[in-house]
Design brief:
The protein has helices at about 1-15, 50-60, 75-85, 100-105, 130-140, 140-150, 155-180, 215-220, 230-240, 245-250; strands at about 35, 40-50, 65-75, 90-100, 115, 120-125, 200-205, 210-215, 225-230, 255, 260. By secondary structure, the protein is α/β, with parallel strands linked by helices. The protein has a single domain (about 1-130, about 185-260), classed as 2-enoyl-CoA Hydratase, Chain A, domain 1.
């Protein structure tokens, strides 16, 4: 877990801890991109970062009714910036490949309707919750060691850590405001508090995993105000009941199974 934590810490500094694309390598480019495909269809693909957020702000048309998604996630801040553009528009969100991490956390709860392509997946791996902030705070030595390897003096490293922690806390507050305004349950964000590995508001969730492959019962329980096109049968054929299940297992990704959000 130490290696995973340090890797995600470094990625967060660069804009977010995104999920692996090992399952569907050809589904989109790694670099974020957006496109107004038609008057009614807007597409987001690749990594969510500041450039992608800028692309959405400059390109998204008011006539858009369908948002096509294929992204492993990325920066929480950039995802929330994009969410500010698409919220309140009653969009149908169509997952064409993947909608993981920040995409699942902050885009799907804003949908009027969610559709998944036969080979698509939605992965959750958590959010910037109090457990994460506490984890970063107590792993200061690892942060400073990374900064030292980058040639920073102890004073520079300490200042960088304080800036990082302040930024993380601001992001956590922004996420909390988003969740409250849009009624996103803590279970969907895999919300945890310091000193506990238990995910609040999520019953029967898998333990000791890096990410959760969202099945239809979990999505319906967590996003009750969203119309969800049936996708469980296709998910079972393509993932949970196929040889691909082994690929999930080796990357410590578990299907949500009986997991459901509780009030």
């Amino acid at each position: 877990m130490k290696g995973i934590f340090v890797a995600c810490l470094a990625l967060f500094l660069l804009g977010g801890c995104a999920t692996s694309r090992a399952f569907n390598a050809e589904s989109s480019t790694a670099t974020g991109a957006c496109q107004q495909r038609s008057a009614e269809v807007f597409a987001i693909s690749g990594e969510i970062d500041r450039d992608l957020a800028h692309c959405v702000r400059e390109t998204f048309a008011d006539t858009t009714r369908i948002l096509a998604l294929d992204t492993t996630g990325g920066s929480v801040e950039a995802a929330l910036d994009i969410a500010a553009v698409i919220e309140g528009r009653d969009l149908t969100m169509r997952v064409e490949g993947e909608c993981n991490s920040a995409c699942a956390n902050y885009f799907l709860p804003l949908a009027r309707r969610i559709e998944l392509a036969p080979d698509a997946m939605v992965l959750l791996h958590g959010s910037v919750d109090p457990w994460t902030i506490d984890r970063w705070r107590t792993r200061q030595d690892e942060f400073l060691a990374i900064e030292a390897q980058r040639g920073q003096t102890p004073e520079q490293a300490q200042a960088a850590f304080e800036r990082f922690l302040s930024s993380a806390e601001a992001t956590a507050a922004r996420q909390a405001d988003f969740a409250q305004r849009h009624g996103v349950p803590p279970g969907w964000l895999l919300y945890r508090t310091p000193g506990s590995e238990t995910m609040e508001g999520l019953a029967h969730g898998p333990n000791n995993v890096v990410a959760i492959l969202v099945e239809e019962p979990m999505m319906r329980s967590c996003l009750p105000g969203v119309e969800i096109a049936p996708f469980q049968s296709a998910l079972q054929r393509q993932w949970t009941h196929s040889h691909r299940r082994l690929a999930l297992f080796w990357q410590r990704i578990a299907p949500s199974g009986r997991a459901v959000c509780t009030s």
